[in-house]
Amino acid sequence: MADLPALPPVNTSGKKLAVGWFSFTCSEDSTILFTELLNDHLEEWKKFVDFKYLKALKMNNQIEGLDVAFVEGAISSEKQAAELKRIRENAKVLVAIGSCACTGQPSATRNNLFDNEINYKVYWYFSHFDYSHEVKKLEDLVKVDEKVMGCPMNADSFIGTLARSLKTFNII
Ligand code: SF4
């Protein structure tokens, strides 16, 4: 697996990359993969990265002033669409993580069901939860700056994106 390129032992830039990690409709496998990466790299990465929003691991989360928002999952309700737009407003760069965020699939599989294939179980979910008619990929709703493909995400691509961001924001 790729690693971040030769991180200096000490952060001399005086700043950290402000990062948020968000998850919408999906199996959250990329979140699991991300936490596995943190198992190996947290001590090294936290010198350079401020994980401001990471609900899987933190109680206190802050969405304001993000440099990079990593967003996993497809959008399946109006509430999620509003949350995604709020993330976009608060992040300089938005990265779609995994196939569901990048293409909608496989979370958007129900979009392809014909009316006669939508049985009473599916109708029950529609009537009891706040689901929109169609499941959408992130790009249908907001500008996406980068994509990390894969189901779950390709870990090397994710690390490459993180490394580029550290350079772009002059952290390293
Ligand atoms: S892209 Fe695959 S692994 Fe990621 S959330 Fe969707 S189904 Fe799960």
Structure characteristics:
5 strands; five-stranded parallel beta sheet; binds iron/sulfur cluster; Rossmann fold; alpha/beta
Task: Detail the topology: elements first, then pairings.
Layout: E1 17-23, H1 29-45, E2 49-54, E3 66-72, H2 78-90, E4 91-97, H3 98-103, H4 120-128, E5 146-148, H5 155-168
Parallel strand pairs: 1-2, 1-3, 3-4, 4-5
The protein binds iron/sulfur cluster.
Task: Please tell me about this protein's structure.
- The chain is of the alpha/beta class and 172 residues long.
- The protein has one domain (17-168): NADH:ubiquinone oxidoreductase-like, 20kDa subunit (Rossmann fold), CATH 3.40.50.700.
- The protein is 34% helix and 17% strand.
- It has helices spanning 29-45, 78-90, 98-103, 120-128, 155-168, and strands spanning 17-23, 49-54, 66-72, 91-97, 146-148.
- Strands 2-1-3-4-5 form a five-stranded parallel sheet.
- Helix 2 (78-90) links the parallel strand 3 and strand 4 (91-97).
- It is elongated.
- Iron/sulfur cluster binds at residues 26-27, 29-30, 72-73, 98-100, 106-107, 151-152.
- Iron/sulfur cluster (SF4) binds next to helix 1 and helix 3.
